[in-house]
Amino acid sequence: MSSKQSQCFMNLQQTKQKQEEQKTRTKTPKIPFEQRINKGISEFKPKHLNKDKTYTKVHQQKMEYKEQSQFRIRAFSQQKQIINQKCIKPDYKPNPSTNLQIDPQKDPQTNPSTNPQTNKQINPQTSPQTNPQAEDQIDAEIQHDYDIKDISNNNDEYQKLLIYTNILFYYNKNQQNLEKQSQSQQGQHKIRGKLYNTLYDHDQNPSYIIQEGEFLVDLNKKQFKLDGQGIEYQGKSNQVKIQGEFKQGVQAQRIPSSQNKSQYKSFSVEPKRIKIMEIIDGQPIQINNRIEKKSTWCKYNQQFYQRDLDIFKSNQWLNSSIIDCYVLSLNKKSEEEYFNLSQDKRRQIKRIYFVTSSLTTNISRLNNIQQGNDLFQKHFLELQEVKYKIQTIYSKIGFPVVSNSHWFFLLFDLEENKVEIFNSLKPNLNAYQNLITKLSELLMVQNPQQSINGNSGSQNDGYSCGYHVCCFMKICHKAQFSNSSLYHYDEKEMRGILRDLINY
Asked: What is the pTM of this model?
């Protein structure tokens, strides 16, 4: 081996040795912050001193280093305390009325044999006491974006009602079980309640989700997912569709442990099947190499035909499908505008709800009060937990009514116990007494004061009563958010609004 090769070999060995020494230094075990500080104090090595420095200066330098270290320890503990305060940690305090399942062999304080003073029985079926601070926490969080109603006087099972756009969520403040799911995610809670959620497709047709049970609630994302034992109902009804265990909003089924599979099987994957689809969106379709327009479509839960669009081409009477389409659009728009406001402004608003004419027509035709009550309760199913008291959410409720091919409007003020009648023809109070009596009983209003709106009686033709009612509903909608809204009849403008609303 030449001298150059031997020199290279020695250099390589030296570099490897240095790398190994560096690795051993980096592999030193991690020591907690406070221990590292204390260790640094005990192993303190002062800087190199000149000959003129005395022992007192060395001692002074060591004391300064110790004070700096203690300051760092205090700063670290304060920062740690602030981080812990940001996380929701319900303080668990056992209550004599709260019975927990405790093993007396493992806990000598609860064992009667070791502690004669303790002779209370433990019931494993009861749950821990909820934390009042945690209960106030959810109210404080949701007050910023949601409305909260106290319904303790109207319901024995639930005491709070959370309201947001297309969402009603009932929960019990005294028995709610709040669990922090993740310290890094604020606004998540585990809580038992009942959810009413309305979803809309691209044609504004509603679909309903009604669920009850244990929910995982994300207040920031406005998400309510069943997570635990729960029930999902069939559409807008009290008929049970699914009941059982849910995981993150998806039903799960237990599988025997003998099978080498996961404990839960998800039903979120749709099985293979033959789908027969009926599309009524009004879009052009191809039949036998010919392009044709479909003659039927559905918007705002109303079915329309080409002849409905033809109504706006001439002076024709508006049918109930067009009126009810406008009613549903106003309700949807009102809720969206309401929750776009700040909470302070929302407190000053008297909300209004418009009822479809189909419900009013069916109720007016029934002589049986119980049948009318069943129809009314089915329409307001989401308010069954508050015993169908509409004034829990709304201050006013409006009814477009058709009688003998003529449209008029009834506006109930639930707070003032009044009913206002708008009729584009010359109104007659005696003609509305039967219907007002039926609706007053359903609304739980006793002998409301009746009055005729001053803008009544302005119709001078035989077809425009529906346009007048729509213009009046438009003003009622605007009056929620503005005190300067005045009635103004503009048939041309309303004709365009309704045509664009039902057009595909």
From this structure: 0.66
